[in-house]
Design brief:
Largest sheet: 3 strands, antiparallel
Radius of gyration: 13 Å
Shape: elongated
Oligomer: single chain
Strand content: 35-45%
Number of domains: 1
Number of helices: 2
Number of strands: 3
Structural class: alpha+beta
Order of helices and strands: HEEEH
Strand order of the largest sheet: 1-2-3
Helix content: 10-25%
Length: 64
């Protein structure tokens, strides 16, 4: 099993895992990198709704 980096652990704790409309599971469709954040497009596997999560990049300053 691959080791998670601190950034991966931070991202997984801030990304919504359930649909705000029906409570179903969300699947990642696309991750778009940006300067200060990543934009995760998620689709609900139950109702088909599309949701956007903005995940700020972790820096050494935010970890202390």
């Amino acid at each position: 099993m691959p080791l998670q980096t601190q950034q991966d652990q931070h991202a997984s704790s801030t990304v919504r895992e359930d649909c705000p409309e029906c409570g179903g599971d969300l699947a990642v469709m696309r991750v778009i990198g940006g300067r200060n954040a990543e934009y995760w497009t998620m689709r609900c596997v139950s109702c088909g709704g599309i949701h956007l999560n903005v995940v700020e990049h972790v820096t050494s300053r935010t970890l202390h």
